Amino acid sequence: MNNQINQIEPVKYDDLIDLSTDIFLDVSGMYHRLNHNETELPLNCEPSKVTLHDIKNGCNPQNIQFSWNPSSCDHCGQIQYNLEIHIDNQTIYKLDDYEGDLISKTSYQLPKNLNPNTTYSWAVFPKSEKGVWNLDVDWQTFTTGEEYSNSAPVAFFYVSPDTGFPSTIFNCNATYSYDMDNDPLTFQWNWGDGSGYSEPSSSSFASHQYATQGKYIISLIVSDDKGASNTSSQPVTVRILETPNQPPSVWFSSNEPSGTISYDNPIFKYDASDTDGNIAGFYRTLGSKYKIDGNTPDESCFSLNKTYQASNLSDGSYTFYVRAKDNDGSLSPHCQ
């Protein structure tokens, strides 16, 4: 194939200026200066270095998945990441140059092909919301195999909610994990509370309830039937329950289709609010209210979107239902 990565000039970093000057080094080589009238940064404002997940030697150069544990910091806010790939200390790929921005997720599917039978090194640079980089990163090496090598699966999941209490059930959905070779997949979960990894299962859904408060890392291993695997992780926080959680409210945000319509792709728009937390997402269904009834609605109906568009509807009567879910796991009544 002809769309392999071309070698580019290495990135040259200037020396990091002392933090007392209120100047911080941007990973691209540009400096970011904080205005003196901005709030003074706390001392612990640098994100921690990330732990890289192993990439097996002999991997398919046309399908490389990078993943790492999230960085942490008490006063960093939203942490974003930049990925670099080197050959012999020469930079051949920078994520922000290709994507146009950094990413906040902890996994990345390389959109370019690497060369077969070649050794690469890679690292991930975390950046805080205030623009402070951690440049003291670890590098990891791997060697690609032939183009026909078995592809490792891509591991991805989301957890809802990501903050709760000991009474909260944390639901994980890994249905967006996939394998380039269409091999059957198995899923193993580690909840970060000492219980260890679960037995391999063909189900991409899992749930867990924590016994005590604290911060936990949920980890997932996705494996194909040829032994290749990949990992992904997400943090959750379990708080002390001080006051009963209040359910969110949901409503339609525009005049929704009603009565008799002459088209088969109506669009429904909705929004929600929560008096004691944040909205984690929505459960939506067209005509199948039972799917989102009760305290454990069907996770396949869950979405972060505030718009639902039906398509290719046959003649007949339909009712659209939506419920909001807050970050503590409470559900709103149905809106229809």
Explain what you see.
- The protein has 336 residues and is mainly beta.
- It folds into 3 domains: 19-143, Immunoglobulins (Immunoglobulin-like); 158-238, Sandwich (Immunoglobulin-like); 249-326, Immunoglobulin-like, CATH 2.60.40.
- The protein has one helix at 95-99, and strands at residues 23-25, 31-33, 65-67, 80-87, 90-94, 107-109, 119-127, 140-143, 158-160, 163-164, 170-173, 185-190, 205-208, 214-224, 229-238, 249-252, 267-273, 279-286, 302-303, 307-309, 320-326.
- Mean pLDDT is 83; it is low at 5-39.
Descriptive keywords:
Immunoglobulin-like; four-stranded antiparallel β-sheet; four-stranded mixed β-sheet; FN3_sf; PKD domain-containing protein; 336 residues; mainly beta; globular; 3 domains; 1% helix; Ig-like_fold; 32% strand
The helix content is under 10%
Look up the CATH topology of the largest domain.
Immunoglobulin-like
How far is the first residue's CA from the last residue's CA? 51 Å
Biggest β-sheet: strands ordered side by side in the sheet: 5-4-7-8
The CATH class of the largest domain: Mainly Beta
- The overall average pLDDT, rounded, is 83
Organism: Candidatus Magnetoglobus multicellularis str. Araruama
Protein name: PKD domain-containing protein
Domain PKD: 173-245
Domain Fibronectin type-III: 46-147
Write the layout of secondary structure elements.
Blueprint: E1 23-25, E2 31-33, E3 65-67, E4 80-87, E5 90-94, H1 95-99, E6 107-109, E7 119-127, E8 140-143, E9 158-160, E10 163-164, E11 170-173, E12 185-190, E13 205-208, E14 214-224, E15 229-238, E16 249-252, E17 267-273, E18 279-286, E19 302-303, E20 307-309, E21 320-326
Parallel strand pairs: 10-15
Antiparallel strand pairs: 1-2, 3-6, 4-5, 4-7, 7-8, 9-11, 11-13, 12-14, 14-15, 16-17, 17-20, 18-19, 18-21
